[in-house]
Design goal:
Layout: H1 2-11, E1 22-23, E2 36-38, E3 41-49, H2 58-66, E4 70-73, E5 76-85, H3 87-91, E6 100-104, H4 116-131, E7 135-139, H5 141-146, H6 163-171, E8 178-181, H7 187-192, H8 204-207, E9 217-223, E10 237-242, E11 247-250, E12 256-260, E13 278-282, E14 294-300, E15 309-316, E16 319-324, E17 333-339, E18 355-361, H9 368-378
Parallel strand pairs: 3-5, 3-6, 6-7, 7-16
Antiparallel strand pairs: 1-15, 2-3, 4-5, 8-11, 9-10, 9-12, 12-15, 13-14, 15-16, 17-18
């Protein structure tokens, strides 16, 4: 019961307007509108949306990667300066003075979609900030928020949206001309209410192992070396961590794809055997096995991201937008395979419902250059003055 209440509480905390002002991101954007220049140092001010999930690492990772990082390009020194900002502060107009809004993963988004006035105020502040020349960088849930909303449930193979998906649709700001291919469901509700544990879809990779060490999958994603963010990177692919986030389905041509998911699905009847996982059903309380909350089903979770865009960039008014369905801020590994073991003590919050074996961890800083170049480009730094690429 304690675990059930904990999961129910998280449901109210974790993630979640079409416009005509989109333009191709090949068009020149207004150079950073509020960058502060002091003694020849160009300071880029970044507002990071805070998180109310103490164990969730994306906001603090972003701060570690960006805060006080400096570089010099063509004799011009640059430095990032980050501060955490709350959803309420954004709603009352406190984005003024920043160059970039960063919404990392499921860092706290605006969680009031049932209040139309508050929701509109939040959305309008973000839209106004970006359209006036501010930048936006989002990963995973931050990508969902920037989108036009989710693809319809029927287009993703389901009869109707889950409660999670309804909230996510309501929270979408609409500053990127893409739809999110995203399944999101509460594992207990899918099991006990939907009577279909597999309805959790790709979000199983979030829920079934909630640790930063093991959640998600590290994938070799093809990248677009023609875009300034990846220009100069000498390889065609990069290992990037994915933790249940969306594919980004283009709505028009005024968008550039930065990266694509691999052509093989993560899980499913024809998915990658080393990363496929089963659906798990919630047992409820069992007097004979009081700590066995979950039972592995025969059905394999199906994902449908293969070959779809994982990251995009575009312009919204005078501002730039960069969003990743995956997590370039997260640590990565190479190799390895998932294993599952249905025991008499399966719990999401301890060891998780799946674990990894035979993998090799890479340095935590492996993809920091992607985050830094994405932040600089979105903030309006000229294409030829972005931070250096680190291999």
């Amino acid at each position: 019961m304690v675990e059930k209440l904990a999961v129910m509480a998280i449901l109210f905390i974790m993630m979640g307007g079409t416009t005509s002002i989109f333009s191709s991101d090949n068009s020149p954007a207004t150079e950073v509108r509020s960058i502060f220049i002091s003694e020849n140092l160009t300071i880029i001010k970044i507002a990071i949306l805070d998180s109310v999930i103490p164990s969730f690492s994306s906001p603090t990772e972003m701060k570690e990667i960006l805060n006080r990082y400096s570089w010099t390009s063509k004799s011009i020194p640059y430095e990032f300066e980050t501060e955490f900002i709350t959803d309420i502060q954004i709603s009352i107009g406190m984005l003024k003075g920043y160059d970039l809004l960063l919404i990392p993963g499921i860092g706290k988004e605006f969680r009031r979609p049932i209040n139309s006035d508050l929701l509109s105020q939040w959305k309008n502040e973000v839209r106004s900030f970006v359209s006036s020349g501010g930048g936006y960088l989002g990963t995973c849930g931050g990508a969902n928020m920037a989108s036009q909303g989710l693809l319809n449930a029927s287009e993703r193979g389901w009869e109707k949206d889950t409660a999670w998906e309804w909230f996510m649709n309501r929270s979408a700001i609409g500053i990127a001309p893409v739809r999110s291919y995203q399944d999101m469901g509460d594992p207990m509700a899918c099991s006990l209410i939907e009577n279909n544990p597999a309805r959790i879809g790709q979000s199983a990779y979030v829920w079934y192992n909630l640790s930063i060490e093991s959640s998600g999958v590290c994938q070799h994603c093809m990248v677009n070396g023609e875009h300034p963010i990846f220009h100069g990177y000498e390889y065609d692919t990069r290992i990037i961590r994915w933790v249940g986030g969306p594919a980004l389905i283009l709505e028009n041509r005024n968008v550039t794809v930065l990266a694509w998911y691999p052509v093989e699905n993560i899980s499913g009847p024809n998915g990658n055997a080393s990363t496929s996982i089963h659906a798990w059903s919630h047992r409820g309380f069992c007097p004979t096995e009081p700590f066995d909350y979950w039972e592995m089903e025969d059905k394999i979770i199906e994902t449908h991201l293969a070959g779809k865009p994982a990251a995009i960039s575009c312009n919204y008014g005078e501002g730039r937008v960069v969003i990743f369905g995956n997590h370039p801020e997260h640590p990565v590994w190479k190799g390895g395979m998932i294993f599952e073991n249905d025991t008499d003590g399966n719990r999401m919050f301890l060891d998780g419902l799946f674990q990894w074996k035979d993998r090799q961890s890479l340095p935590d800083s492996y993809n920091w250059w992607i985050v830094r170049r994405s932040a600089a480009w979105a903030a309006g730094v000229p294409d030829d003055k972005l931070p250096p690429i680190s291999i």
